[in-house]
Write a structure and sequence with these properties.
The complex is a heterodimer. Chain A is α/β, with parallel strands linked by helices. Chain A has helices spanning 11-27, 42-53, 70-76, 95-104, 151-156, 175-185, 202-213; strands at residues 2-8, 30-36, 59-65, 81-86, 112-116, 133-139, 159-163, 190-193. In chain A, strands 4-3-5-2-6-7-8 form a seven-stranded parallel sheet, sandwiched between helices. In chain A, β3 (59-65), α3 and β4 form a beta-alpha-beta unit. The model of chain B has no long low-confidence stretch (mean pLDDT 95). The chains are: A alpha/beta, B alpha+beta. Chain A binds chain B through residues 1-13, 90-92, 94, 122-123, 125-127, 147-148, 151-152, 154-155, 184-188, and chain B through 1-2, 4-6, 9-10, 12-14, 17-18, 21, 23, 30, 36-39, 84-88, 95-97, 104-113.
């Protein structure tokens, strides 16, 4: 006997993502899901972002890593609330893990929660967390040929931050070709070019983010 | 590689519907997998064998129906197959498009007795 099911396998995650969304709305909190390969500069960009919005936005950070708490310690040193999630081998964060972390944060008076996803350009793109904004970072050292290799991530993100632009003169990274490819896949994507090392381009990103958060 | 957690979710869906229909055995699981999904068939089969052991779905056949990446242009209404992940409308050059298929991973039906 054949039974019709028609149920999406990510539906269970979607339901919890919507719960996260409702919780954030209740507190008036904006959430960014930051995704990138390992080493692209997620933690560095988060630190630069915290610096750029300091005194204007009250922030909290959820750190997703397979193991360790190095990143959350770096954030907490800044006096910012940070929760570490260890996925124990899993390559992405799911909505239920973020739900638990949100429950441990003091959301009263918070404006912005930044979630640092596990370093990976594949799986995090499939799992909605209830975020307002999906941001991805591509660092120059990874090469300009990545969009067509990781199409879902490049077409799902709302904002793309090209990091390590100070390295461009030392590489054959073709920024114009890269942007052209991404815009075909994702016409509405916002692109920022930054160097977290020297701070170039960071104010444009943080200024835009502040507008989005609406504070 | 997120197929392990994906297969756990898939099993939850399958077993829920199997139990609801008082199945003694699940013989076949019909899945729909979009062209743009990051999920891969072989690891799904591999983890399914591991996870389904000792359940009524053990030994069930997995069937994958692949769907193409199809979008609709919001400007002119043209439906088109997206090639090379270029979402520009081939008819009017519009860039405001909605994905109609190709992103899904769904349990379409199960065959039980």
């Amino acid at each position: 006997m054949e039974i019709e099911v028609l149920e999406g396998i990510f539906d269970a995650n979607e339901i919890i993502a919507r719960e996260n969304r409702a919780l954030l709305d209740r507190f008036g909190v904006f959430m960014v899901n930051m995704m990138a390969s390992p080493g692209a500069g997620k933690t560095s960009l988060i630190l630069r972002t915290l610096e750029g919005v300091e005194g204007e936005l009250s922030c909290a950070v959820i750190e997703g890593d397979i193991a360790g708490k190095v990143d959350s310690e770096r954030i907490a040193e800044r006096g910012v609330q940070a929760i570490q999630i260890n996925t124990g081998g899993s390559c992405h964060l799911e909505a239920r893990q973020v739900n638990t972390a949100l429950g441990r944060l003091d959301l009263e008076g918070a404006d912005l929660v930044v979630v640092e996803n596990v370093g990976n350009l594949v799986c995090p793109a499939e799992f909605h967390l209830g975020e307002d904004l999906k941001a991805m970072i591509l660092s120059v050292a990874e090469g300009h040929d990545k969009p067509l290799k990781y199409p879902l991530m490049f077409s799902e993100c709302h904002v793309l931050i090209v990091n390590k632009i100070d390295l461009i003169p030392h590489t054959d990274f073709d920024l114009e070709l890269f942007k052209k490819t991404v815009r075909k896949m994702n016409p509405s994507v916002e692109i920022f070019e930054v160097s977290c090392r020297n701070g170039d381009g960071v104010p444009a990103w943080t200024g835009w983010l502040k507008d989005r958060v609406g504070k | 590689m997120h197929e392990l957690s994906v297969v756990e979710s898939m099993m939850a869906v399958v077993l829920k519907h199997a139990e609801k229909n008082r199945a003694g055995k699940v013989n076949r699981i019909n899945l729909v997998l979009g062209e743009m999904s990051t999920v891969m068939e072989d690891p799904v089969k591999f983890y399914f064998e591991l996870i389904s052991k000792d359940t009524i779905a053990a030994g069930a056949e997995l069937s994958f129906r692949r769907t193409e990446l199809i979008a609709r242009c919001e400007d002119c209404g043209k439906e088109f197959k997206v090639e090379e992940y270029d979402f520009t409308c081939p008819e009017c050059g519009g860039t405001d498009t909605e994905i109609l298929s190709g992103r899904e991973f769904q349990v379409e039906s199960i065959e039980i007795n």
